[in-house]
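Interim report, section 4.2 (structural modelling).
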Amino acid sequence: MSMKISTRQVDGVTILDLGGRITLGEGSVQLRDSVRDLLAKGQKKILLNLGDVNYIDSSGIGELVSAYTTVRNQGGELKLLNLTRKVHDLLQITKLYTVFDVKDDEASAIASYAHA
Amino acid sequence: MRTEEGHLTGQPEKRVTYTLDSSLDSVNKVEQTAEQMARKAGVDDDEIFRISMAVREAAVNAVLHGNAYDPEKRMTASFENTGSSLVIRITDEGKGLDPATLPDPLAPENLLRGSGRGIFLIRSFMDEVHFKQLHPGTELTLIKHLGAAPSGA
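Predicted structure of the assembly:
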């Protein structure tokens, strides 16, 4: 039922591979803590790979938004990769699809980050 | 996930009501019951997702915003297939909810808020949503017409 997170680094970008459910009391807190830890370590180029996220509720959507604004407020960039159709549809109806920078190819997603 | 074969689409069933404590386990139970009910009624997978998510959001509202996880307060969830509709009622014992006061989550000034999308999603995914003030608390009635065109995205 819960969410799985693993982290990897590619060309200065931290990719969080998320799987399972991002919901109230399950994945939401894990996601918040992971993003906070990355920012504390100075890792501000963050790519959330949602390819294996099969369920997200309004709390999870809110957590994605909070992660996005938190990273942006610290001068970083948070982008989304590999949305499932359900997550894509949810971001569409909540009008968040155009707020996020959404990618469907990892290599071009990595290349899209500003390189210092 | 449970699948049951041999049930006619829209076959009426008696109303089943659960009285539950104000916990996330209760939210998950209500969500799973809604999913099973929708599957049994023969609706497609996308509609099952919409119905179970709307019901989950209603249960989260009841437990989190209504009862505020108060162990003394209960949520009730009733499920009924009338033959033409799926009717789910969720009640809490909280301070009450006035839907007219809820901010529009699609308004530009609210788009980046970290919360406030639950009722919007419920309305997007169900055919009818009714609010009733209880004393104390709120009753939310969610209705999905069977055989209707898909709602939402």
